[in-house]
Amino acid sequence: MHVKAKSMAVCGLMLALSVVFMVLGSVIETSTLFLLAAASYFTGIVIREFGPLMGSAFWLAAVLLGFLLAPNKFYVITFAAMGFYIVAVETAHRKLGASRLQNRRAAFWIIKYIIFNILYIPGVLLFQELLFGRGITGMLLVGIIAAGQIGIFIYDRAYEYVQRHIWSRMRGHLMH
């Protein structure tokens, strides 16, 4: 099979799975975050396999299809933020790989938290009524922001696990 056709077929399959996970996140309410995270991980797989341009196009296509097909549009927005985080982090990783920084690993984690907080903190502050049904202030707001920091650590570790252990096993079946 021609290389371009094969990459398009693999991306199409992953796009379909990503949208199915988004739709399932709307249907299976108890596993929404898990399914949206799984859907967003496909963006990272496409970036690592086919480059950042293809990954960005994949992410945009998934967001557009999600708005067309998913019953809960709020979950599509959540997926869009998760996918954007992965696009930004993978781009930062590529840029840091070419740099001569002494401690790239620490710099990468700092960049990850900056990217996350640029997305998360304004979202929590500006959309409190939508997210919580009422305005949140004081220690509860601080707790929600702190919980997000723990959540991104777990999300990021799960993403790295999927890339290293799950995708590396499945890759040979789809890519050869």
Blueprint (SSEs and pairs):
Layout: H1 3-27, H2 32-50, H3 52-69, H4 73-97, H5 104-126, H6 128-132, H7 138-175
Helix pairs in contact: 1-2, 1-3, 2-3, 2-4, 2-7, 3-4, 4-5, 5-7
Structure report:
By secondary structure, the protein is mainly alpha-helical. The protein has a single domain, classed as Arp2/3 complex 21 kDa subunit ARPC3 (Orthogonal Bundle). 87% of the residues lie in helices and 0% in strands. It is built from seven helices and no strands.
Short summary of the structure?
The protein is mainly alpha-helical.
Percent of residues in β-strands: under 5%
Oligomer: single chain
Level-1 CATH class name: Mainly Alpha
Tally of DSSP helical segments: 7
Count the domains: 1
List keywords for this structure.
176 residues; mainly alpha; Arp2/3 complex 21 kDa subunit ARPC3; 7 helices; globular
